Amino acid sequence: MIVCMYEKNDENALPVEAKKKEVPLKKQSSDSQETQDKNKIVFFEGCKLAFDLEDLLRASAEILGKGTFGTTYKASLDENTTVVVKRLKEVTVGKREFEQQMEIVGRIKHENVDALRAYYYSKEEKLIVYDFYQQGSVSALLHGRRGEGRIPLDWESRLRIAIGAARGIAHIHAQHGGKLVHGNIKASNIFLNSQGYGCVSDIGLAILMSPIPPPATRAAGYRAPEVTDTRKSTHASDVYAFGVLLLELLTGKSPVPVAGSEEVMHLVRWVNSVVREEWTAEVFDVELLRYPNIEEEMVEMLQIGMACASRIPDQRPKMTEVVRMMEEIRHVNTGNAPSTESRSEVSTPTNYALDMMMMASTSVPPQ
């Protein structure tokens, strides 16, 4: 039995109540039966799912979102099996290159990386299958409409999300001889694992797609300034995107449009401008003000976020260094959730983080 994800790549982070619309996946597939028989679904080792393409296309499906790389569905194969299916669009590579990338991603096994369970490739149809996470994405948790059962994320939850996502990205960067890049890090691609830590999804799809001009994607708020071709993302641009995500967790403000809000800002520039004016306390999400004794931790996390989001790629820390700095704030080890009881003392911000924050704040031009 797999109980997996609810909202994949939903850039607008609409609450599930607003998007329940069942659609037959089969209607949108133009593959012939001969093609379907020739191109079987490929399952990865450790996946306990068992279905064929016809089962998947007949499944009761709910559109969860239309994002940069395609449309995402919640598919119920039976009463005990729910998966997320992403129907990819604008795939420009051939079958061999597509399969090679899927094999690289499919081999990743880490508690902070959303496992790719299966994929299907044919001339007319490209599908990938993930787990379904009932809680939804971090974007939905942060920016979902008030008054519809949304519970504000407390500081402990945001720390777990940030630390888990950092661990996941660091692990991704170590794969394939250190050549693997995520390429699309954003709050709508981060979910919560069973321990409440961030879990990174949608890995390595950017290089398979048509290049998207910078103004044309709704994920532009996470994109590093040096990236002009989405297929040429780097470890450093992933670090920048993580920095934006961390600032989003700290401020409660989204760098991309979200449902129910017309507020869209250049989050990195705004944070830098506030810090330059020495109004740092004004940066933090008002929902965090109710929690005592977290100011120092928030400032330290802010320093890390600003260092990651430096305009100059060489000034950004590596993800392994980011993980180390974040874990030092709470003195946590892998697998240990941070808790109030473990916070007997707060570590002093590293000189590295402080230096990087100053570089970041002085290298961003005014808006």
Automatic annotation (TrEMBL):
Q: Which PROSITE patterns match?
A: PROTEIN_KINASE_ATP, PROTEIN_KINASE_DOM
Q: Which domain of life is it from?
A: Eukaryota
Ranges in a coiled coil: none
Q: Which Gene3D superfamilies match?
A: Phosphorylase Kinase, domain 1, Transferase(Phosphotransferase) domain 1
Q: Which Pfam families match?
A: PK_Tyr_Ser-Thr
Keyword terms of this UniProt record: ATP-binding, Nucleotide-binding
Q: Which InterPro entries match?
A: At_inactive_RLKs, Kinase-like_dom_sf, Prot_kinase_dom, Protein_kinase_ATP_BS, Ser-Thr/Tyr_kinase_cat_dom
**Protein's name in the database:** Protein kinase domain-containing protein
Domain Protein kinase stretches: 58-329
Q: Which residues bind ATP?
A: K95
